[in-house]
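Consider the tokenized backbone below.
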């Protein structure tokens, strides 16, 4: 198992080194999106709820088309219609959707934070592992903050906390990209 993890780690780091420019460009874009979301948390949260609603609508339509085309049966058709209805509800009631998404976001941040911290220890000898650990810990902290202030947190939390998460994820990518660029430049 340890050899599999080190193979994954070395593959990840090798790809970051090969693509330092792309890594840095993506990190800056993610940082800017994080700043936008923090500056307009309600707009970001409502936009996210509406976007998820439309994704469900389009997914449900595709599922319904498939179900009818292949004669998948009534259960498949009902599930497709429920997906369309859920998406339509989210689009027409983004405030309620935002509250539901707040709970999901809290759980998501805690789980991803734990996995990011584990990943940081797996790449520990590499430069930037501390930033990955910090990113994971920030994610867990943000998830706990949302959970402890629900339902009030539903109004501001999605946009603000996703913004913070994006900012630190972008910062972590930037540190990996800059570290990889330094390694590449010293090898030339």
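A designed sequence for it:
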């Amino acid at each position: 198992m340890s050899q599999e993890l080190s193979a994954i780690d070395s593959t990840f780091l090798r790809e970051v080194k090969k693509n330092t420019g792309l890594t840095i460009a993506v990190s800056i874009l993610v940082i800017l999106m994080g700043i936008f979301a923090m500056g307009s948390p309600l707009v970001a949260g409502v936009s996210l709820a509406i976007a998820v609603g439309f994704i469900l609508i389009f997914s449900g339509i595709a599922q319904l088309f498939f179900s009818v085309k292949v004669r998948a049966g009534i259960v498949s058709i009902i599930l497709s219609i429920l997906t369309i209805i859920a998406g339509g509800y989210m689009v027409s009631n983004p405030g309620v959707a935002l509250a539901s998404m707040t709970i999901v976001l809290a759980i998501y941040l805690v789980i991803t934070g734990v996995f990011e911290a584990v990943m940081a220890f797996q790449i520990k000898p590499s430069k930037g592992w501390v930033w990955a650990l910090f990113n994971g810990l920030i994610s867990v902290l943000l998830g706990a903050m949302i959970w402890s202030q629900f339902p009030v947190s539903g109004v501001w939390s999605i946009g603000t906390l996703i913004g913070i998460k994006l900012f630190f994820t972008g910062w972590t990518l930037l540190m990996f990209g800059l570290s990889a660029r330094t390694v590449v430049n010293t090898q030339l």
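DSSP finds seven helices and no strands in the chain.
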